[in-house]
Design brief:
Residues 45-144 form the Methyltransferase domain. By secondary structure, the chain is an alpha/beta fold. It has helices at residues 6-20, 24-39, 54-62, 75-85, 126-139, 158-177, 183-191, 197-207, 218-228, and strands at residues 44-48, 67-72, 91-95, 112-118, 140-151, 232-238, 242-248. The protein binds S-adenosylmethionine (SAM). Residues 17, 49-51, 54, 72-74, 77, 97-99, 118-120, 123, 211 line the site of S-adenosylmethionine.
């Protein structure tokens, strides 16, 4: 395991994700700007559906006195996360299913200054996501924040959505022709790494290719977070396809 090039896997994960979201780093930057603005530069963070720990990585590079708990269900992405941060006392990773009503019991802390998530909650349908937002409201301390950067679709704007999608896919087709790895190809590569072959097989047993979920509008997220107990909620950044939604407890 120790011979595995974890930094290489992180870079290759980032390249694959950036093919879908060219603004991904900007989203992370604005997310951390808002963390600093609302809870300061030494936050205790929950990296929700952390994958390889992408948010935790940017958090600790920018705020060395922060601490982070990463929670996810994917054994392969968690193997990369654990390999990357091995020996770093600021970071803990927890294996849990966010649809399990008891998942918060696995966490090392009762409350967090910030719960942060990216490109993940569209894996959940809106029923389980509403339940998850209730749990998140219980984890964020008063004055703390929740932020979700994800695809959020406003069904009231079908022509804008179709035009945006067509342009996005044209750009992706061009980059694919130039050799970018997509989701399926990336997982095929992971399955060939001796350190990731077992966990990759297990993640396909858990999820199949990808879990089904919903992509409700930013308005739905803000309303649902307010109903869950947050005092304020609104977008703080958006691109034609994605929104960074911030809620303050
Ligand atoms: C596309 S990845 C994004 C990972 C990371 N946040 C990033 O931006 O690179 C989506 C993540 O959501 C996680 N996820 C989806 N459904 C989950 C669930 N029910 N419980 C825990 N994690 C889940 C997946 O395992 C995966 O790691």
């Amino acid at each position: 395991m120790s011979d595995t090039d974890w930094a290489g896997w992180q870079q290759s994960w980032d390249r694959q994700q950036e093919w879908y979201m060219p603004d991904r780093e900007e989203r992370f930057r604005v997310m951390l700007d808002m963390v600093e603005a609302l809870v300061g530069p030494k936050p205790r963070v929950l990296d929700l559906a952390c994958g390889t720990g992408s948010i935790t990585d940017r958090l600790l590079k920018r705020f060395p006195d922060a601490v982070s708990t990463g929670v996810d269900l994917d054994p392969a992405l968690l193997a990369i996360a654990r390999g990357t941060f091995e020996g770093d006392g600021r970071v803990t990773f927890v294996t849990a299913d966010l649809k399990d009503p008891e998942w918060t019991k696995e966490l090392p802390y009762d409350t967090y200054d910030a719960v942060l998530t990216a490109t993940a909650l569209h894996w959940l349908h809106s029923g389980p996501l509403t339940a998850l937002y209730g749990q998140v409201a219980g984890l964020v301390r008063d004055g703390g924040v929740f932020m979700n950067a994800d695809h959020m679709i406003d069904t009231a704007t079908p022509r804008i959505n179709a035009a945006e999608r067509a342009q996005r896919h044209a750009r992706m087709d061009e980059e694919k022709a130039a050799g970018v790895l997509d989701w399926t190809e990336w997982w095929a590569l992971a399955a060939k790494d001796p350190a990731l072959a077992g966990p990759t097989a297990r993640r396909f047993e858990i999820y199949g290719d990808h879990a089904d979920g919903d992509m409700p509008s930013a308005g739905w997220h803000a309303d649902t977070l307010r109903a869950a107990g947050f005092g304020e909620a609104r977008p703080v950044w958006c691109s034609p396809s994605d929104t960074l939604l911030l809620a303050v407890k």
